[in-house]
Amino acid sequence: MKHNFGAGPCILPQEVFQEAAKAVLDFNNTGLSILEISHRSKEFEEVVAETESLVRELLNVPENYSVLFLQGGASQQFAMIPMNLLPEGGKAAYLDTGVWASKAAKEAKNFGQIDIVASSKESNYTYVPKGFDIPLDATYFHYTSNNTIYGTEIFEKPQTTVPTIVDMSSDILSREINVAEFDLIYAGAQKNMGPAGVTLVIVKNDLLGKSGRSIPTIFNYQEHIKAGSMYNTPPVYSIFVSMLNLRWLKAKGGIKAIEQENIIKARTLYDEIERNTFFKGTAAVEDRSRMNITFVMDTPELEAEFLTLAKERNLIGIKGHRSVGGFRASVYNALGITSINALVDAMREFEESHK
Ligand SMILES: *Cc1c(COP(=O)(O)O)cnc(C)c1O
Asked: What's the pTM?
């Protein structure tokens, strides 16, 4: 068994892979592959409807929010958000907690004035800035709830009355959230919801249609809402596999249940990082992520050797992002505690053999 700690596209449950494979050959006894059915067919309309209703149920999405399945990844949202929301000459506020957050701000600069309310760039994003002010005349405030590369996570929405937008690409569905606190939530599916190719957007309806800008149809949230995420051909297979994964999550007891598992998984690994004399965490303890756990060695010369051992033990994808180095264990929903234990065992084995 391979233990997939990859940061994204990520591990999904084995049973999801099996059902997804079956549907490639014969989707719902139609005698057709899911890859060849019409996106306008009754069968696929049911898939979209069920995917939306699972998102609404699992995340407790209020009625006055739309749920969209779009393409272009989270990166397209970086541009779509200001394009839809910022009036000419308008201003938005961004919190800079990493590469994704700063890319989001960079795109927004094409559409208006961008205030960076705080940044931890000077420490290579090892912590989340606190105690910053969000200007009240900003059209919206944007932040990234989980910093996939640096292993930091923001669990509490920063206090503000300014409409708040959050990139939850790498922690969506991993913990309970109050959707009503946010005005727009987006997430590329491939970190914790499904395969690459679909992006989830949850948007409060009355946030839209106020910028006075002319927006190309394909980038206009209101057009996608009107068309029920079918303005153009949607990513049929990615939505289907996401639905299977959401069904799996619901059967497991939903977000409350998975959050408890995620807490235990993260604690188990952080405990070993703290205990083991060869390893140390890179993120500030109070900001540590439950989804992406970053750590390095006191003696970097040994890192290659640990990667070799990890490979022998079928631990996949633990090499850290090049901008942080060391290791990163992404421990998304579908990764079981067995895999965490396998990594912990390898870390102990390494320590024993180097004493
Ligand atoms: C991976 C990631 C992105 C980029 O997602 P794409 O779907 O590849 O555009 C954006 N934000 C966060 C937090 C991510 O982890």
From this structure: 0.98
